[in-house]
Amino acid sequence: MFTKEVVLKKVVQVLLHIVFWCGVLLFFTYFFGFESNDDAYIMTFSFFLMPITIATTYVSIYKLIPDYLINKRYFLFGLYSLYTLIISGYLILVSVFFGLGYLSEFKYNNANQLNKNLFFVMIAVYLVVIVVSAFKLLKLNLKHAEKTKILVTQILETQLKLKEQELNYLKMQIHPHFLFNTLNTMYGFALKKADETPEMILKLSNLLDYLLYQEDKPFVLLSEEISHIKDYIELERMRFNDTLNVNFKCKNTVETMTIAPMLLLPFIENSFKHGSLKNGILIININLSSTKDGIDFFIENTHNKSEDLNKGIGLQNIQKRLELLYKNNYNLDIDADTNHFKVRLKLKIK
């Protein structure tokens, strides 16, 4: 059932077609009326050509172009175009004879000069067909381009949603990993009834606030990430006591710079979890510097070479997150020798 909007659109389309063909009729009368004063003769001859022009044009724009040319059925397009050309050419020939015969009372001298020339008559008819067909082809190409653009947008949106789901999944993996390590530390202090336990709870509370509420943000200030790294290090200092030596240096950190939350903290956590004591001490060196274009992060810890570098989910997660969030804008180098495990991350910030 047609709605009011559809009916109105059809009516407007019909009116536009009528106006266009009235314009074509005026073109024919002007073209064939060159150096002629017989308006009735010219108008009748132009009217006689109109059905041929209209039929040829509509066959081209509603059948040949959409069904064959657009669908790349080139052989059938060429074949049916040839049929159309032959039939329309025959009808144009009949029109010329009509003009020379009936309208000029079978007197050659009474015929219009242009009407005597089949070539000029065909030019007039096929010029209209070609112009309208070109417009139709342009319209279909624009419509196809718009559909392609919409499809590409939908594909990109789908890919973005998949990346967001994957990123959320990676974050969910980080949560229990981080909490398990921290709560284990607190448990040990609680058993010993250590005086540092309240301070640990306070720092853990700050970290949980960052973990639960700030990590959902796409970006946080670099200064916030640094602050929570310091809290985490202090928690670990309480756990390791005299067996830990951490050197954390920050240089030229840009206050307004933002990064993805929990981007650097997993590196710190990994160094504590998989670091090895050398001469009774775990040594961790951390250097962080930034410019307006990016950050340079380096971390090194004492390491037992026999341990599998791929153990745990920390580094695997961070590599996946970097690929999702900073693709082609980061450089991550991971190296290990007999005694040290080193990570350097260079990140370009757009």
From TrEMBL:
**Stretches that traverse the bilayer:** 12-34, 40-62, 74-98, 118-138
Q: Which UniProt keywords apply?
A: Kinase, Membrane, Transferase, Transmembrane, Transmembrane helix
InterPro entries given for it? Answer: Bact_2-comp_sensor_kinase, HATPase_C_sf, Sig_transdc_His_kin_internal
* One Gene Ontology term, aspect cellular component: membrane
Taking the record's annotation, the residue ranges forming a coiled coil are none
Q: Name one GO molecular function term.
A: phosphorelay sensor kinase activity
Q: What range(s) does the Signal transduction histidine kinase internal region domain occupy?
A: 166-244
> What is the protein name given in its UniProt record?
Histidine kinase
